[in-house]
Amino acid sequence: LNAINNKMLTELCTVLKKSSNDLNVRVVILMGSEKFFAAGADIKEMEKKNSNEMYLEDYFTEEHNIISSFRKPLIAGVSGYALGGGCELAMMCDIMIASESAKFGQPEIKLGTIPAAGGTQRLARNVGKSKAMEMVLTGQVISANDAKEIGLVSNIFPVGQLLNNAIDLANTIASNSLPVLIMAKQAILSSMETPLTEGIISERRIFQSSFALNDRNCLLYTSPSPRDR
User: Fold this and answer.
1) Is 88 a known active-site residue?
2) DSSP 8-state symbol, 161
3) According to a count of CB atoms within 10 Å of the terminal CB, is the N or C end of the chain lower?
4) Is-catalytic flag, 108?
5) pLDDT band at residue 56, thresholds of 50, 70 and 90?
6) Within the chain, what is the greatest distance between any pair of CA atoms?
7) 170 is catalytic
8) Burial class (CB in 10 A: 0-12, 13-18, 19+), 197
9) Active site annotation includes 53
10) What's the CA gap between 50 and 182, in Å, rounded?
11) pLDDT tens-digit map of 70-107
12) Is there a contact between 25 and 19 (Cβ–Cβ < 8 Å)?
């Protein structure tokens, strides 16, 4: 079921670290199986832990930080269930696309706890306070169509076509300058955490710094004369 445990996250972070340093990698696609993107955290791994252990171990925090701070574009291709930590893992990605069978939810409330990998934070930023409250406080599971309607996913595809469409999207993104991709991602993510005025300043500074790059293509564009417009 692609349950999220320490082994899974360690392996995922190893791949992301390697990809981050590989200049031949411009985009990473994260997918599960057709039936399960990730069913959630591995309950068996956590059920015997007490509050002190969870607090002192700072459970999964380092791994989550590695995933969410990955500099290159990260696409989540979600098919089947993405629940609890699985939904949170998908939300750590930059673009989320889904198959028609995808299901999303934060059901931690039904286990007597709350989301702990950004489910109360990223979800509210993605879909708004009211819908986030509804999903977290009820533990409801929503369909791919509902997820697209509220802005959690950008596009929906038939199950068998999800991977090909994820690759097409990745190839389109990868055709652009890698440094500028990283800059653009940084600028958009900063908008989630800063006031508009500060975000605009940050955007402008990143834009200005892009003029130092060798792969800037704006000089190839010639503005049309007034009579040609």
Assistant:
1) yes
2) G
3) C
4) yes
5) low
6) 75
7) no
8) exposed
9) no
10) 39
11) 999 999 999 999 999 999 999 999 999 999 999 999 99
12) yes
